[in-house]
C-alpha cells in the first residue's frame, strides 16, 4: 500500500492509517533521538552551570541556618561524593530543561492518531504540564526552609545538624519532584473530564471525600513529613480540584 503523505507544520509525515509497523518504529526512533539529543544538550548546560544550580539548592539550607557562604556548606564524606552529586544534579537538571522538547516530541508522535477536535488540546496540555511541574517544584523550594526549621526544632537543641550533600540534595530533589508531579493533578482531572470518564457534577458531588483523600495523600507522600510541606501540597490540590470542576463545565459548554 502506497504511503500517503501530508504537510503538517512544514513537515512531510505519513498518515497513521497508511503507516506500516516499520514506519511507526522509524517515527518513534526519530522522536527518541531528538529527545535524547535535547537531553544531552540540556545536561551539558546543567553541568556547566552546576555551581549556580548547587547554590540555588543550598539556599533553603542557608535560610534555615540564618547564614550564608561557608556557614551553610554541605558535607561530602567521600572523595567521589562531590563528583557523584554533580552528575546527579546534571541528570535531573538536564531532564527538567529538556522536558518541553521531550513532551513536544511525544505530542508530535501521538497527534497523527488524534481526531481534529482532540489535537487542539495537545499544545495547551503540554504547556500546562511543564508549567505546573515547574510551579510545584518552586513551591517545594520555597517551603523547604520551613520544613528544615521544623525538623531541627523537633530533633532537640543538643543535636548539631550538618547535612551531607548527598542526603540533603536527595531530599530536596525528591520533594521538588513529588510536588511537581502532584501539581499535575488538575491536568489529569481535566483530561478525564474531556475523555468523559468523569463529569464536573460528579467531582462536585465527591468534594467532601476528595478533601479527606487529598489531605491524607499529602501527609503520606511528603518526604520531609513536616506540616509546612503537607499544607503547601494539600491547599493547592484543593484549589486545583475546584478549578478542574470550573474548567470542566466551561469545556462542556
Briefly, what is this?
Helices cover 74% and strands 3% of the residues. The protein has 253 residues and is mainly α.
Structural overview:
This protein has 10 helices and 2 strands, in the order ββαααααααααα. The chain has a two-stranded antiparallel ribbon. β1 and β2 form a beta hairpin. The two termini are 42 Å apart. The N terminus is likely disordered.
What's the helix-strand series?
A: EEHHHHHHHHHH
Helix coverage percent:
over 70%
Strand content: under 5%
> How many helices in DSSP terms?
10
Number of strands: 2
* Major beta sheet, strand line-up: 1-2
| Shape field | flat
| Structure classification | mainly alpha
Rg to the nearest angstrom?
22 Å
Low-confidence stretches: 1-11
Major sheet description: 2 strands, antiparallel
- Termini separation (Å)? 42 Å
Average pLDDT, rounded to a whole number, is 81
List keywords for this structure.
single chain, 253 residues, mainly alpha, two-stranded antiparallel sheet
Write the layout of secondary structure elements.
Elements: E1 5-8, E2 11-14, H1 21-48, H2 50-65, H3 81-110, H4 116-119, H5 122-155, H6 165-182, H7 185-195, H8 200-205, H9 207-221, H10 227-252
Antiparallel strand pairs: 1-2
Amino acid at each position: 500500500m502506497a504511503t500517503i503523505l501530508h504537510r503538517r507544520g512544514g513537515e512531510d509525515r505519513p498518515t497513521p492509517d497508511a503507516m506500516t509497523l516499520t514506519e511507526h518504529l522509524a517515527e518513534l526512533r526519530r522522536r527518541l533521538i531528538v529527545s535524547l539529543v535535547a537531553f544531552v544538550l540540556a545536561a551539558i548546560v546543567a553541568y556547566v552551570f552546576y555551581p549556580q544550580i548547587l547554590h540555588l539548592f543550598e539556599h533553603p539550607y542557608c535560610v534555615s541556618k540564618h547564614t550564608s557562604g561557608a556557614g551553610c556548606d554541605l558535607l561530602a564524606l567521600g572523595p567521589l561524593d562531590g563528583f557523584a552529586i554533580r552528575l546527579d544534579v546534571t541528570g535531573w537538571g538536564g531532564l527538567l530543561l529538556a522536558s518541553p522538547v521531550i513532551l513536544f516530541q511525544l505530542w508530535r508522535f501521538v497527534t497523527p492518531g488524534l481526531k481534529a477536535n482532540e489535537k487542539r488540546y495537545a499544545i495547551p496540555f503540554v504547556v500546562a504540564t511543564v508549567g505546573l511541574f515547574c510551579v510545584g517544584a518552586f513551591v517545594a523550594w520555597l517551603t523547604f526552609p520551613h520544613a528544615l526549621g521544623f525538623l531541627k526544632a523537633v530533633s532537640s537543641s543538643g543535636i548539631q545538624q550538618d547535612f551531607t550533600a548527598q542526603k540533603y540534595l536527595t531530599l530536596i530533589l525528591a520533594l521538588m519532584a513529588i510536588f511537581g508531579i502532584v501539581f499535575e493533578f488538575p491536568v489529569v482531572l481535566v483530561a478525564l473530564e474531556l475523555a468523559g470518564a468523569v463529569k464536573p457534577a460528579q467531582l462536585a458531588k465527591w468534594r467532601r471525600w476528595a478533601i479527606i483523600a487529598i489531605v491524607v495523600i499529602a501527609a503520606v507522600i511528603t518526604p520531609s513529613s513536616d506540616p509546612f510541606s503537607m499544607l503547601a501540597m494539600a491547599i493547592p490540590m484543593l484549589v486545583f480540584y475546584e478549578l478542574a470542576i470550573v474548567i470542566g463545565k466551561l469545556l462542556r459548554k
